[in-house]
Structure formats: C-alpha cells, structure tokens
Amino acid sequence: MSTKTDQAIDEAARRTRNWGRWGEDDERGTLNFATPERIVAAARLVRTGRVFPLAIPFDQQGPQSGLHGRFNPIHGMAFDGGDQLPLPHGIGFADDTVFMPLQCATQWDALSHCFDRGRMYNGRDAREVSSLGARHNGIEKVAGCFAGRGVLLDVARSKGLDDLAPGTAIGEADLEGCITAQGDSARVGTGDFVLVRTGQMGRCLREGWGGFAGGDAPGLSFGTADWLHRKELAAIATDTWGMEVRPNELEDSFQPLHQVLLPNMGLHIGEIFDLEALATDCASDGVYEFFFVAPPLPITGAVGSPINPYAIK
Amino acid sequence: MSTKTDQAIDEAARRTRNWGRWGEDDERGTLNFATPERIVAAARLVRTGRVFPLAIPFDQQGPQSGLHGRFNPIHGMAFDGGDQLPLPHGIGFADDTVFMPLQCATQWDALSHCFDRGRMYNGRDAREVSSLGARHNGIEKVAGCFAGRGVLLDVARSKGLDDLAPGTAIGEADLEGCITAQGDSARVGTGDFVLVRTGQMGRCLREGWGGFAGGDAPGLSFGTADWLHRKELAAIATDTWGMEVRPNELEDSFQPLHQVLLPNMGLHIGEIFDLEALATDCASDGVYEFFFVAPPLPITGAVGSPINPYAIK
Amino acid sequence: MSTKTDQAIDEAARRTRNWGRWGEDDERGTLNFATPERIVAAARLVRTGRVFPLAIPFDQQGPQSGLHGRFNPIHGMAFDGGDQLPLPHGIGFADDTVFMPLQCATQWDALSHCFDRGRMYNGRDAREVSSLGARHNGIEKVAGCFAGRGVLLDVARSKGLDDLAPGTAIGEADLEGCITAQGDSARVGTGDFVLVRTGQMGRCLREGWGGFAGGDAPGLSFGTADWLHRKELAAIATDTWGMEVRPNELEDSFQPLHQVLLPNMGLHIGEIFDLEALATDCASDGVYEFFFVAPPLPITGAVGSPINPYAIK
Amino acid sequence: MSTKTDQAIDEAARRTRNWGRWGEDDERGTLNFATPERIVAAARLVRTGRVFPLAIPFDQQGPQSGLHGRFNPIHGMAFDGGDQLPLPHGIGFADDTVFMPLQCATQWDALSHCFDRGRMYNGRDAREVSSLGARHNGIEKVAGCFAGRGVLLDVARSKGLDDLAPGTAIGEADLEGCITAQGDSARVGTGDFVLVRTGQMGRCLREGWGGFAGGDAPGLSFGTADWLHRKELAAIATDTWGMEVRPNELEDSFQPLHQVLLPNMGLHIGEIFDLEALATDCASDGVYEFFFVAPPLPITGAVGSPINPYAIK
C-alpha cells in the first residue's frame, strides 16, 4: 500500500463527505439537491418533445465478458407464440424472464455499492450489505428521486475528437472548458444530473466492445471530486463502464473516485449510458440541457439498478 | 367454444384494429399518438415538482404465487460488504443479480405478449415470438416511447369506495362518470396515458396479496374496447394484475380485452401499478393530470418489461 | 442464550470432533472411511440389479415455500420443439436451463454448509465461504467420494408405523432397535452410508408437502451424535428436509446436530431422500443393504449439491 | 438442401429406428438394454474400488462461450459465512444457488433434445417439447436407468496419439481396431455404456478451451450409426462437446448423427466427459471395463441433465 495514495483518498473523502448533512437517517445523499422547485424548472426545458432513451440494449451482445463476475442479461421465454397453450377463443400469450447482474448494462450505482474502510454513506457499516441485501442505502430508498435538470457535457466533441483515448483523465479544467465551449445551456448547478460523454461508447458501438467492461477507459480524474462537491450535483453519469479514468491515477489504487463519491459524498453514479444520439442532437441545436428522468427498479436491498434514462428536450 | 363469444371478440377486434394505420412496418401501435407536441404540452403539467414512483417493491414479498409460472423477483449478491475482497486502500464493493419474470410486478405488456388467432399487432405471425424472443413487437422497439400526459381515473373514489369488489366491470359509463366527477384536469384525449385505479392494490397493501396475482379482480369491461379506441390513448394501465375484470364477462373466455387491445388495437397495457399515493394527492388538490414517464428496460426481444413509472405533478 | 444448551453443543462437538484426523489439509471428513476396499465389498451387494433412484422430482411442485429464501427449481427452455430454427435437413433441437437453490430438493450438505462459532470442518474460518463461494470444504472437493455400502434404517416401519409424527426424536436406542429388527443385512459399520426413513416424505407424497420444508419433522435426536461418531459412518441421510428432529430438543437451539456433525465431525448430510420404493423393496426381501452411489455435481465452491442417489440391490 | 444428404440421413434413420421396439409408450429407448441381469454382472467389475468421477468442474471457467445461447454455470450465495445471521448458540449456515444451461458441462442429452423432421423418439411430435418442457421423453423418465457396464474406448491412445485432430472422423474400423488393441476387457456388447476418448478434452485442459464448445472436433463418424445399432449399446458418450465429428461429414449438414441416434434409435448421448484420469488408469492396468453409474437429476420435462458420472473399477 502506498501511504501517498491512502492520504490522497483520505483527504478528498474528508473534504467532500456529506455524512449527516441531511440528517442521520438520510439514505438519499446528493439526490436531496434535486428539489421539487428544481424539478418544476427542469420540466420547462422540454421544448421540442424529442425523447432520447439512454440505455444500451439489454442482451447477450452486451459489453460484459465475465470480468468481476459480471455477465450479459440472459433472457428466456416462459412460454412463447409457438406453444399451443390450452386457451379458449384463439387467444395466446407469451411470458418471459431475465437473469442479470444489476451492474451489467446501463445502471445506477446505489450508495450501498461501494465502501470506504468498511463504511458506506452516512457512516453505516459495510456489513449491513450482506447476502440478504442492503439493509440501508439500497436503491429502493431512492425509488422516486431521479428526475431533474440534465446537462450533457460532451467533452470529446468539445476537444474536437470522436472519442477520448483510454487513460485520458478528464479534469476540472476540461469540464469547465467544455461548459464554456457549449455555452449557457451547459452551465452546471445545484441539483443537476450531469452526463459526461467521452465518446468511448460510440467507438465501441462502431467497432465492438472489446475490453470496454472493466478495461482501460477515459473518465473523470480523481481531482474532480472537489468540483463535483462544489457544484452540488444530484448525480453524475458517463458513457463508460466505470465513470472514472482507467488505469486509475493514484498509485496502486482501484477506482478511488468511487471511494470518495459513493460512500463519502453520497453521490449516485450512472454508468454505461448511451449518449450518442443525444450528443448529436445537442451539437446540432446547441442546447445541452433537458429534462432528465431515470427511474430505478425498486429492487429491495439492491446495490444498483438497470435503467433506461430519458433525456427529454 | 361459444360461438357468441367468438363473435363478440371478432367484431370488437375488427372495429378497433389498427393494423397498417402507421404503416406496415410499425411496431409502436397507439404509442404513435404520443407525439412530440403532446410531450411538450404534457411537460407543462409539472407544477409542484412532486414525483410519484408507481412501482411496487420488487422482492420476495411480491404478489406472485406461482400461478402461470410467475414468481417473485429473486435477488442475489455476487459479492457483499462482508466479503474480504483483495482490494487496495480500504475500498470495497458489492454487486448483485436479479432473476425475475418480466411480468412479475409493475410492468408493460409489449405488443408481442398477446396473440389473436395466431397473429400479433400489425398482422405478424405469433410464431415470430419463439424461444429466441420476439422478432417483432418486442419491448425494445418502443424503448423511447413512454412519455406524455398522464391522467388518473380514480374510479373507486369516484364511486365513494375504498376499492371495487373483485368481479366489478368498469364500463364506459363508469369511466365517463369518473371523468365528470374529477373535473377538467381529468379529460382524456389523444395520446394520453390513462391510469385506472380500482383500489384493489390498496386493499392488498393493507391486508396482504391473497389471490391478487391471477385471481378475481375489478377491471375494465370488455365493452370499453371501443371507448379506448375512440379516445386514441397512448397506453392504458391499472392497479390490478391483469387490467380487465375477472372473472371475464364473455362466456368461456380468458382475458378477451387483452385479445382485442394488444394484437388488434396495438395498445400497450400497464399492470400492477401502485396508484395509492398518487390518488391521495390528486384527491387532495383536485388535479388528475401530470407528466408521465415510464421507460421500459430495452431487453431485446422481450414481451414485456418491469418498470418504475413516474407521475410528476 | 441458554448456558445449558451452549454447554451441550460444546461438549458434543469436542467429543466427536475430527479436525486433523485425516491431516490438516483434509476436506473430506468421514468420507475418508469409504475406502476402496469397502467399495469393492459394497459392489458385491448388487444381487438382483434393481436400481432405486432416490431423488424427488425437481420441479415447481417441490417442497419449498420460500422459507429461508429457498424456492423450487425453475426450469426454462432456451429453445424448444416448436421453434423453427434455421437448421438443415429436418433436424431440430431443444435446450434448457435451470435456476435453483442447491438445497431445494434431494441434496448433499457440503462441509462448508454449516459453521460452529465461526469455524467449519478442520478448523477453517467460516469467512472462507464468501459471496465468491467456499474456498475450502466445497462440494467439488469430494466429487468422487460418494460410493460405498448403503444401509436403510426404516425406523418408521420397525415401529409398525407408516410415519413418525413431527417432533419425534430418533435416539440411539431407536436406531439399534431398528437394526435388530431388520436383521443382519442392516448392521452398520465403518464407511457405511446410512439412510434413515421416518416416513414423513411418504406422507407428504400422499397428502401434499404442507410445511415439510423448514417445518416440524421427525428426525435424529441430538443424542445420536456419539453413535454416529462411534459407528464411523461415511455419511448420513434422511427423508426429511433437515435430518434432525424439529422442534429441536435443546432449549432455544436451531439445528444443533448440524452444528456438531458438519463443522466438527466432518460428516456429510443428505436430505430430502425419497426412500419409499426402496423401503418397500427392503421390507419385501428383508435385505437392507445395497451398493450406494450418489455423485454430487462438482459446482466449484458450492456448499451443497442436488443429487439423484442410486441404491442398487 | 442436398438431396444426397437428405437421403443418407433418411436411410440411416430407417435402418436403425427403434420406434415401437419396447412398446408404443416407451420413453427409455436403448436404456432398455441395461437389464437388471447386466447390472449385476457389471457390479462384479468393481475390483479395486477406485472411483473416477467424470464431470468437469461446473463453474465460470467452463467451456461455454455463448454459442448456441449456452453459458457457463452461474453460482451465487444466498447467504454465506461472513453474514451475521441471527442464529443462536454460535451456529451459522451458508446456502447457494446455480443458474445453468442443462447442456453447459458434463451431461446427458435426453431423447427430447433432438428431432428428425418434427418427430422425436417413438414417433412423438416435437411440439410436445414446448416452453413448458417435454411432455414425453424428458430426462425424468429415465431417472433410474443409468447404471451398467462401462467400457472406455481410448481411440486416441490406440492410435499412439495424445489427441485426435479436430475434423477426425472415428469410423467403425477405428472403434473395432481400438477394441482389438485394448483386449478382452474392451469387448463391447448389449447394454453397455461406451465412452469414447478422442483426447480433445485433455488438450483443452492443458491449453485452454478455445473453440471447444461448438467448434471443430474429432468425433464419431456418421457411418457408425449402424455399428452403434448392431452393438445394442445402452448409451454412448465422448469427451467432446457434441459426440460426432465436426465439421460434419455430410454436405450442408448439422449434427446428422444426432438426428439418427436420439430421435430414431432412442440412444442417449453423453457429452463433455472428462476421461483423462480414467484413461491413464486403464492404460496402466489394461482393464477397460468398469461399473458405470451416471444418475441424471430428474428435472421434470428437461431435455437433458448435468451429471457427474462415476466409473468404478
């Protein structure tokens, strides 16, 4: 273990920790920033009625390769259109099932997904997340909290690139530069859901997933923790598998920005968002803000949820 | 088989059939009514920023009892907070999985869920829904289509009841009476998502599920097919397991309204919606309309999807 | 906690503990008693070639009711005989899947299934059984160990009963009485696989499972731990869900005989064996010994396995 | 379609078809050859008590790669040794689950696994295998039928090779040559379970699975159908994923020997057997016969079963 890395994580965690900020019983974290007033204002951003669903297809052609025990969704038919069920008057039915890791495709990380030295958000013991599920901080505790103003930060495009190279760390200057380049509609403030586009998914959709899941990736720099904290976002999401840059910047570390954001800041993280069509549209009309609605399935005790977020312009 | 029942289904199917209405290749059915213009107008209904998530909890305490092969969601931890994963610097993670019928809880029925004499929406062969999934009319084909104006028709409350008794058929007069009682905000028109409350779920949440899943229920009368067609709804949903009244009204029939609405009219059906909190709020402020967003998971070839719909007032 | 119960468990554990008996690295426990020589002798017991498969059907009509998170096997077709797969020359195929708890039906409990004060067989830490599976004492470590002499002890019949009442504790005297009643072929010795019939399953097969899974049951008395130790059995099995008598005899205890047998003695336990046809045959010819072969599926890191044991006479 | 291929399959099917041979209701096929008398004789082959379990490990490192929708077993813990369950007196438990294709690892193909022009064994309609499972010819119908004399035919070793190259067809002459080379104990007769070793699995265990599952492979020639019929085997098995040679010999065909053996002859097929340790032992003592016991899990309506066969010498 590197003392320097420990120290960097520890200091960032202390600077951005929101434990107790919304009460000792709080399980929502920064989603508390998405207040009713802000939701009303955000709904006014619907100007043309174009809906952009941001989920990738949930199927066997997905990005997972078995790493970290994650696999692509397994869909099965309980009965189908070829079965001759004994039903009257010519009616027929089909039913189906799915088996999937909640982290396999487009998803929210719940606040129970990541721990910092045995603790999760609001100081709770990591062991509250047992085989029986998460006693606290489960995704069902924020079932109704994912609506508000969304902002796309198309960092790749703002740099004139189709996609950022794996290993590219997106720092505070990059985010601010992107906002400046994109103009007024891209200003980021309290209670916003910010979607950062690296373009990596676009490349994968064109060329194949390759090592997308768990592999090297462009992503947020560890150094953005303070910016995320200062901006008082409701949640953050990217078009990569794991939000932060990989390989990680701190020596010998594994996803240190997760370690700061989820258990300390209480910031929900969205991953594997397909931002391609939305980004094209935003580049075309110059409007980077929209109404954002991304309801999780309230699976009791779950540490995440598959989602199909809507950006509505 | 009863000739009379066959005839009733056949005639209703012919009167309300939308095959070809939006082109031979269409897989969206009446969701085509939810146009961008209507979405813009619907977003203006967000006035207070209150969000009502309409999903029931997805867990082993759900309504399923094994009937029709349906069971409650099975959640498992891939790794949890008690595991001692070999990760550096005090970081820890939890991941999880779910196995569930797509029809087990709050859900959309896709247009490939039901067949009429071997055909599904737009005249396609039911055998296109094989063990490999639905080649057409799968839920992924309408991934971005579930946003628009929502209207709650609280039929139980409009009759001064906590809940309608199982077997109570809700007819056109009941729906129109409810609209009249609820006032202007409850007027129903083209492209609306209409949520009908019978109160049965409220009773189950208080008293236990009992025979909720697959059992007797209040619900829409077979006779409402023409009303639903005339109103040009985007989709219909209820707080019961199967939308229509059970036992079914036509002799020897099984879910005949499904047989008309899904394969013929191309109307998506929502089931097992928890409308209790929303209904209380609407009764309190007299406003029965809202922005409705209910994104399905785009599971490729699926004949339905679990959802957590948001009604945003 | 009752000091008396603690003391009883602790003393029995110490009297019967086999840690180190077959070396510090051993993961087989008493299966070590089933030596090649004994297997040769046991094979000689095949005299008529009648095979008795001892598994119950693995399907949705099984005994599980959701207690302890256990459910019945969920079988699904990946593709079936009605699908029109694009295969040449008239060939067709069907494939299928199963999702099941490894403890849902006829099964072996692995030595990693049960812990005594944080320890499992041979002194290993219970935390070696994490969400990633059992690092030691998993069922795959004894993949080839379940063959040898089998003996049926039909305790119910030896008492002139169809089945023992729930709550009936089978003590050492009952076992010895049964052996005496059944005669020479029922003598029990080192390396034997002993199958104890209470008749409870026979009653359930006639009358329905009711509370079979996890409910009150006849079964081995806590007091038989020493007899089982002295007899040097390879493994023990019963026709009940949990081998030992329920309610348990020791005050405030839960499955204390498991706590002695699995983590301390290292004795594998078989449960939910269907002994009905075998028992009828043994009663008819007076021969209670046979060749017993019950291979587990070598699921890596599993704490048990579904099985279909064969008693071959 | 090639008329020549059609004709070859059709003629072999007619020459070897066993429909009606054991009655119109029969669902056992050639397992009927494994009579009680032969089981008694086979048990006498247990001479040293060495048990060879023939299953590969059931885990994520298995051979499946997603082809044909097959994946490796997914093992999950329902609760584990790190959970702090509220149990008295220091007892703890772990439970687990598995989700797997029944065809993913060492397995029996049931007679409902393969169809010939819409028919399965004994003339039954393929559509009897619907999403609800196999109404006839399911694996549960032969739950107690897999015991008898086993014979290893180590074709690779008989040719002085570690393993046969993919695409190598093993013909009747190869089988007879192997028997002659191996000597008296390898003579094959009515009711035997014959295990054919190509060595391909040995190579995969040394070098990685690569394209093992569904890929090119050595295996039985289409021409062996008559030999298998004449020999009146109980069942056949190999150490490859699909028993017969791949690419298939007949033009434009897919697994034509399956098409003859399963639906016409009624011969169960075993696949992905690990014969390495057994083969080494047989080469060392020159004894190629043994008692063979391979109980399937009686999963109701299943078209196959995972197994852990025992060869007991």
Q: What does it look like?
A:
The structure is a homotetramer of 313-residue chains. In chain A, strand 9 and strand 10 (133-134) form a beta hairpin. A 9-stranded mixed beta sheet of chain A has the order 1-19-17-11-13-15-16-5-18, with helices on both faces. A two-stranded antiparallel sheet of chain A has the order 2-4. Chain A has a two-stranded antiparallel sheet with strand order 7-8. The first copy, chain A, has helices at residues 3-16, 36-43, 155-158, 172-182, 200-207, 225-231, 256-265, 276-285; strands at residues 51-53, 74-79, 91-93, 95-101, 107-109, 114-116, 119-120, 124-125, 129-130, 133-134, 147-154, 169-170, 193-197, 219-220, 235-238, 268-271, 289-293, 304-306, 310-312. In chain A, 23% of the residues lie in helices and 22% in strands. Chain A is α/β, with parallel strands linked by helices and 313 residues long. The first copy, chain A, is globular and about 70 Å long.
Features:
homotetramer, 313 residues, alpha/beta, two-stranded antiparallel ribbon, 23% helix, globular
